[in-house]
């Protein structure tokens, strides 16, 4: 479910990118691993804690975040950046950051899964174990993404600029 919402958000952002006028911005120069990690882990934790809304705010936060990714892609294209530049800017850390965000969204939907399982008479004994496992994996992926975003992505972008 979180993956589907993630994809829908990006697609919506690309189609409705003209809704948010954005000035050309330079890449984030000088940001540290810690800066990226804190920024992304706070977003992931916030999405995870929407578990208490039975997925309503989880879906909304995923849509908004990924809508902005789609908007950023379109604005980057409109400002003359080619697809190689955009892929270089997003993919290296995105292969870790995107799964972390999808896992955060999955955590946000876990309570509704547990309630549905309970209503069906199924056991939900692994509920907390799943959440802790997902949370731990989310933190690890977010940290790896921060390292890549701070150290590898700028180097790769410099090669294509």
Automatic annotation (TrEMBL):
Coiled-coil region(s) at which residues? none
Q: Does the keyword Transmembrane apply?
A: yes
One matching Pfam family, short form? SpoIIM
Q: Which domain of life is it from?
A: Bacteria
- Which keywords has UniProt assigned to this entry? Membrane, Transmembrane, Transmembrane helix
Spans traversing the lipid bilayer:
41-63, 83-105, 126-148
Protein known as = Stage II sporulation protein M
Tell me the organism.
Aeribacillus pallidus
Highest lineage ranks of the organism? Bacteria, Bacillati, Bacillota, Bacilli, Bacillales
